[in-house]
Amino acid sequence: MRVMVVDDEDIERKGLKMILERELTNIVVNDEARNGRLAIQIAKTFQPHIIFMDIKMPGMNGLETIEEIRKDSPHVKFVILTAFDTLGVTKKTSTEGVMDYILKPYSKDELIETFDRLVVK
């Protein structure tokens, strides 16, 4: 399974990648992106199955990025990473086909449980 991590903060990307690779088998976190534009380019080549996407990034935000990636890759499952627990975010993510969202800061267990739910769906 190919997994991609998109977050503008290096420490968030590296930490998430480390947790996923350490705790899960049969996945490849081949790529990560620091912004939406780069994520779109990488997704076209890498063709990930799951993308963990930060919602608040400079320039193109996570929801805009998801919308663009969906045009070429409707099969991709998205998990939003956000520090914002608002109803508007929840409603918007459900209309964009986002499978789940995780509030920052998240625990390793929460991350693994979310991943496991996605694999089952």
Automatic annotation (TrEMBL):
Organism for this UniProt entry: Evansella vedderi
Transmembrane parts of this sequence: none
Pfam families noted in UniProt: Response_reg
Protein's recorded name: YesN/AraC family two-component response regulator
SMART domains documented for this protein: REC
Top-rank taxon: Bacteria
Residue span(s) of domain Response regulatory: 2-119
InterPro entries xrefs: Bact_response_regulator, CheY-like_superfamily, Sig_transdc_resp-reg_receiver
Modification type 4-aspartylphosphate: residues: D54
Keywords in alphabetical order: Phosphoprotein
SUPFAM superfamilies attached to this UniProt entry: CheY-like (SSF52172)
